[in-house]
Specification:
- There is one protein chain.
- The protein has a single domain (26-262), classed as Collagenase (Catalytic Domain) (3-Layer(aba) Sandwich).
- The chain has a six-stranded mixed beta sheet with strand order 1-5-6-4-2-3, covered by helices on one side. The chain has a two-stranded antiparallel sheet with strand order 7-8.
- It is of the alpha/beta class.
- The chain starts with a helix and ends with a helix.
- The longest helix is centred in the first third of the chain and has 22 residues, at 3-24.
- The protein has five helices and eight strands.
- This is Metalloendopeptidase.
Length: 265
């Protein structure tokens, strides 16, 4: 190969690598899912009360709704309970900001204060919750509940998941301990209308009934696991003032369901 030809090849390869980085928007380096673990949350971070800005609807996560990477399951998965609710191991992405760590600590504390569930730093456990930091506006859980031998049980947050509210973190953690969306319960057709013609094909799985679900307690319009209303969904019954689709806190029924699944003797 001549020097001229070699130079042309090198220039071509360099331009391709540059274009790949431009297209993906991610510099060449450690992928988000493979980054090092950060330090466990501190007592101060668990006690932290985050401050949030005001957001327009378009500022919320683009796919907090389309937030389950589907692994076949139910609505409340009694068979997917973590074996020791008092010690669910977790690790954190090392790149979470102080604001993110505060919001995650606050969300976990709501479980600690209201249920027997405790998230604890991983030591040598094979199965654990892995919290990833992602730059794109997404919040999602891979699968629902516990998978023995599954290793890292992934949950991913972007800054939009905690910039304006902590409920999106509580929502994803509730997926991780074994709950699907409230509006996918087998009895949901008594409570809501799903407007299928208005739902994009890629989102329809997030509205499909979770067949074979274990129903725990009554339907909860105010659940942190319920999607908001709009062109995809309307209600059938009196909601008694519930804020449907709220992402502020676990509802009392959310807490009661968690306690029934994990804390009943």
């Amino acid at each position: 190969m001549s020097k001229k030809s070699g130079a042309m090849v090198m220039a071509f390869l360099w331009s391709c690598c540059w274009m790949i980085q431009l297209i993906t928007g991610t510099p060449v380096g450690t992928p988000e899912m493979d980054r090092a673990f950060g330090a466990p949350l501190t007592a101060a971070e668990f006690a932290c009360v985050p401050t949030f800005g005001k957001a327009a609807p378009e500022d919320f996560p683009h796919s907090e709704g389309n937030d389950i990477v589907i692994v076949p399951n139910k609505n409340a998965y009694l068979s997917r309970k973590w074996p020791n609710a008092s010690a669910i191991p977790y690790v954190l992405d090392s790149t979470f900001s102080a604001k993110a760590r505060c919001a995650i600590g606050y969300a976990m504390t709501q479980y600690h204060k209201n249920t027997c569930i405790r998230f604890v730093p991983r030591t040598v456990e094979t199965d654990y919750v892995k919290l990833n930091n992602l730059d794109t506006p997404e919040c999602y859980s891979i699968g629902l509940g516990y998978y023995k031998g599954g290793g890292a049980h992934e949950v991913t947050f972007s800054p939009s998941c905690y910039q304006y509210q902590a409920g999106s973190i509580m929502h994803e953690l509730m997926h991780r301990v074994g709950f699907n969306h409230e509006h996918t319960r087998p009895d949901r057709d008594t409570y809501v209308n799903i407007l299928w013609n208005n739902i994009d094909a890629g989102w329809k799985a997030q509205y499909a009934i979770a067949e074979g679900s274990n129903l725990l307690l009554t339907y909860d319009y105010g659940s942190v696991m319920h999607y908001g209303l709009g062109r995809e969904m309307t209600t059938k019954l009196n909601t008694n003032g519930a804020v449907i689709g709220q992402r502020q806190a676990l509802s009392q029924l959310d807490i009661n369901k968690l306690k029934l699944m994990y804390c009943s003797k």
